Amino acid sequence: MINGRRHGELAERIANDIKKRRRLDAGIDQLPFNPMNLPGNNPEVKQARELEGGIVIIGRPTFKEFMAGLKRGWLESLEIVDKEERLSRELENDGRFDEPELEPSTSFNAGEDEPIPTPSKLKPSFVPPHLKSGARPPSSQNDHQPIPSALNIPPASIPPQPPLLLVPFLNYIGLTQIPHMIWEFFNERHKVRSGAEAAYRIIVGETRPVTAPSNFEDADPTPAEPFQAEPLSEPLDINFNKDFEAYYKASFVKDFTSEIQKAREGYYQELSKKLETARALARGSREPTKDEVNYPPPTEVELRAERMKKELRWRSDEAGWDIVKPSSSVAWDERFRSTLRVFVEPSSEREAEFRRQAEEIMSSVARKEEEQQ
Question: Which residue of 40, 113, 133, 212 is most buried, as measured by CB atoms within 10 A?
Answer without folding.
Answer: 212
